[in-house]
Amino acid sequence: MRYDPDTTLLGTLLADPEVVAILEKHAPGITNNPMIGMAKGMTANQALTMGAPFLGGQQVVDALRAEMNNLV
User: Fold this and answer.
1) Is 22 helix (H, G, I), strand (E, B) or coil?
2) CB atoms within 10 A of CB 61
3) What ranges do the domains of the chain cover?
4) pTM score > 0.85 for this model?
5) pLDDT digits (tens, 9 = 90+) for 12-21
6) Which CB contacts under 8 angstroms, 24+ apart, belong to 66-69?
7) Span 48-70, pLDDT tens digits
């Protein structure tokens, strides 16, 4: 696992092109949404939990977490 979702900030994840590709695959347009800027200071887990409704629900969040956990 490249990132610890409990300690890694969303802003750090958004700087990684591989993570951006995963986010865009599961929630197209999410990385260009102006509201994502407000979440950059949250940990990945906080942002995914709070953002689940905007991302398409818990199934999408689970898929995002699974793919991000596979990054090495």
Assistant:
1) helix
2) 20
3) 10-69
4) yes
5) 999 999 999 9
6) 67/22, 67/25, 67/26, 68/1, 68/2, 68/3, 68/5, 68/13, 68/19, 68/22, 68/44, 69/1, 69/5
7) 999 999 889 999 999 999 999 99
Find where tokens 């199934």 sit: 59
Question: What stretches of 2-48 adopt beta strand conformation (E)?
Answer: none
Helix, strand or coil, per DSSP, at residue 57: coil
Phi, psi of 9 (to 5 degrees): -80, 150
CA-CA distance, 51 to 55, in Å (whole number)? 6
Q: Of 20, 19, 14, which is closest to residue 2 (Cα–Cα)?
A: 19
Hey, what are 55's tokens?
């991302």
